[in-house]
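Section 5.1 Outputs to date
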Amino acid sequence: MVTELARAREIAAAVADPELPALTIGELGMVRDVTETADGIEVAITPTYNGCPAMGMIALAIEATLLEAGFSRVAVRIVREPAWTTDWIGAQAREKLRAAGIAPPAPRTAGCLAPAALACPRCGSAETEEIAPFGATACKSLWRCRACREPFEHFKCH
């Protein structure tokens, strides 16, 4: 039997990331905790980057989704410590990024230095080059594949 708290966690974790709609905030490892307080359900989330402009939208989406699911009072709290890391992105989510045409980040254990080359998420070629250190969002850089000539984004290691 699923408890109300576990159901609330499941619902919150299923909210899509507005900047990476192929992934949920649960798959990105942003959902830190879901607790029951005297004021209702509280969801603690960690931003993927400090100053991420999507956090307000994510908090509203969590609140709206939980209210729609029947929870009467919902609060979302931003937790900044420990800082989020790309190591919290699971293997399945990394494959979803690749399938969406975004090169996933390397594990932090490999070091977060800018890679000299990435495998193209479209054709797999290592013949790639960075075009710009920032893509559509600060958490991604823009790359181009020399083999298939397609541009792609890379989710930066953090």
